[in-house]
Design a protein that fits this description.
The complex is a heterodimer of chains A (about 140) and B (about 270). Chain A has about 140 residues and is an alpha+beta fold. Chain A has a domain at about 1-70 and about 100-115: hypothetical protein PF0899 fold (2-Layer Sandwich). Helices cover about 25% and strands about 25% of the residues of chain A. Chain A has three helices and six strands; from the N terminus they run H-E-H-E-E-E-E-E-H. In chain A, strand 3 and strand 4 form a beta hairpin. The model of chain A is unreliable at about 120-135 (pLDDT under 50). The model of chain B is unreliable at about 1-25 and about 250-265 (pLDDT under 50). Chain B starts with 12 loop residues before the first strand and ends with a helix. With about 270 residues, chain B is α/β, with parallel strands linked by helices. Chain B contains nine helices and ten strands. In chain B, the strands form two sheets. A seven-stranded parallel beta sheet of chain B has the order 6-5-7-4-8-9-10, with helices on both faces. In chain B, about 35% of the residues lie in helices and about 20% in strands. Chain B folds into two domains: about 1-40, no CATH class; about 45-260, Rossmann fold (3-Layer(aba) Sandwich). Classes of the chains: A alpha+beta (about 140), B alpha/beta (about 270). At the A-B interface, helix 1, strand 1 and strand 6 of A face strand 3, helix 1, helix 6 and helix 7 of B. Strand 6 of chain A pairs antiparallel with strand 3 of chain B, so a sheet runs across the interface.
């Protein structure tokens, strides 16, 4: 279950980035996970709520962008999907040593909402919009 | 001002369609905004690994990360390497296990300078775990350091330990198609070692199939067949390690491994 420790890394990096970009509640976290990253998206999803609990990312949505592995065949001069990580060109049968994508393990993006209610800077109602999320446009 | 997502370049423009997975946002001040990051998820581990790699390079020390399922023979292979060792410097090993220091004791008996890391619940080693263990070595006196990872073909794949080469081990008793079941791990291998080759006939291990399967999921790896028990193939393994190290531009190690490759068993 290294997905738990990966999710802890997600949490730490997400909180740090949110802090660096003006703070606020994290409402969505998008991960980009390659099929050859060695991480099980389902297990990540299970770990998500537990790991985010008690932080400014509690209740956030987890979005996983799955990246299918893809190789490049030098003979055919064309990419092909590396189904199940198999780098064998379906056209000519040659083994490709060029993996174009599939090892991604990234924090792709965050969605941030109003500053966290727990943050004393924003707790004073006088200094904040009563409903900062409301946009009348 | 955020430079990552260019927020603040225009008036707040909140586009949020109900139920959509993403919102395109440019909004300084309150209201959701989207930060495009694309940063490596294990950047903390990667930073530790990079520091270790620098440290190993400064000491001229080649480091192998040895990975396999439990019971494929990582420790036996290391014992064999230790018993046959004829390098001028020492062979060191860091052994990761969930519990017990049995493996380290076995390795010490084979003449290896071994330090055990017990990981408790952790199913893999992380770069930061190695730092305290490294304090117990005189890196300059080592000629080769092998990190025996926790027996697991899934979790350790994503964790760089600052190694020079990654060796993934597979025993003939595990079947020819094992690599196809763990493509992520095999993809990361520099050398794939087929161990217990002395049992190949007994378990009707199909070598041709095995090599083909390995090539499919580990296209860049060198493949070597060995028996840690009989010593068969150990020369070829040392050559594959030396060639892999040379290919990755690590000069000093070749001296160590080539010396043992040429030398007679002690």
């Amino acid at each position: 279950m290294h997905e738990l420790s990966i999710m802890e890394a997600v949490r730490d990096q997400a909180l740090e980035q949110a802090e660096r970009h003006g703070g606020g509640r994290i409402t969505a976290i998008t991960l980009r996970i390659g099929s050859l990253a060695g991480v099980e998206p389902e297990a990540l999803t299970m770990a998500f709520d537990v790991v985010m609990a008690g932080t400014t990312a509690a209740g956030a949505r987890l979005v996983i962008e799955a990246v299918a592995a893809e190789c490049f065949c030098a003979g055919c001069q064309a990419p092909f999907p590396a189904q199940d990580g198999v780098c064998e060109c379906p056209r000519c049968g040659a083994i490709s040593r060029q993996l174009l994508r599939g090892r991604e393990l990234q924090l792709a993006s965050l969605e941030l909402a109003d500053p966290a209610p727990a943050d004393p800077t924003f707790a004073d109602p006088a200094s904040a919009d009563p409903d900062p999320r409301r946009q009348d446009r | 001002m955020c430079t990552t997502c260019n927020c603040g370049q225009s008036e707040p423009a909140l586009i949020e369609s109900a139920g959509a997975e993403t919102a395109v946002i440019a909004a300084p001040g309150p209201g959701p905004r989207r930060l495009e990051l694309g940063e490596a998820l294990l950047s903390h581990n990667d930073a530790h690994a990079a520091a270790l790699r620098q440290r190993f390079a400064a000491a001229g020390l080649p480091v192998l990360n040895l990975l396999s399922s439990p019971g494929s023979g990582k420790t036996a292979l290391l014992e064999r390497l230790g018993r046959d060792w004829s390098g001028s410097g020492r062979l060191g090993a860091i052994v990761g296990d969930l519990a017990t220091d049995n493996d380290a004791r076995r390795l010490r008996a084979a003449g290896i300078e071994a330090v055990q890391i017990t990981t408790g619940q952790a199913c893999h080693l992380e770069a930061s775990m190695l730092e305290p263990a490294l304090e117990r070595f005189d890196l300059a006196a080592l000629e080769l350091l092998v990190i025996e990872n926790v027996g697991n073909l899934v979790c350790p794949a994503a964790y760089d330990l600052g190694e020079s080469l990654r060796l993934v081990l597979l025993a003939v008793t595990e079947g020819e198609d094992k690599p196809l079941k763990y493509p992520a791990m095999f993809h990361s291998a520099d050398v794939v070692v087929i161990n217990k080759i002395d049992l190949a006939a007994a378990v009707e291990f199909d070598r041709e199939h095995a090599h083909r399967h390995i090539a499919r999921v580990a296209p860049a790896a060198r493949i070597v067949e060995v028996s840690a028990r009989t010593g068969e193939g150990m020369e070829a393994l040392r050559e594959a390690i030396a060639a892999g190290l040379a290919a990755s531009g690590i000069a000093a190690p070749a001296r160590a491994v080539a010396a043992t490759a040429a030398g007679a068993p002690v």
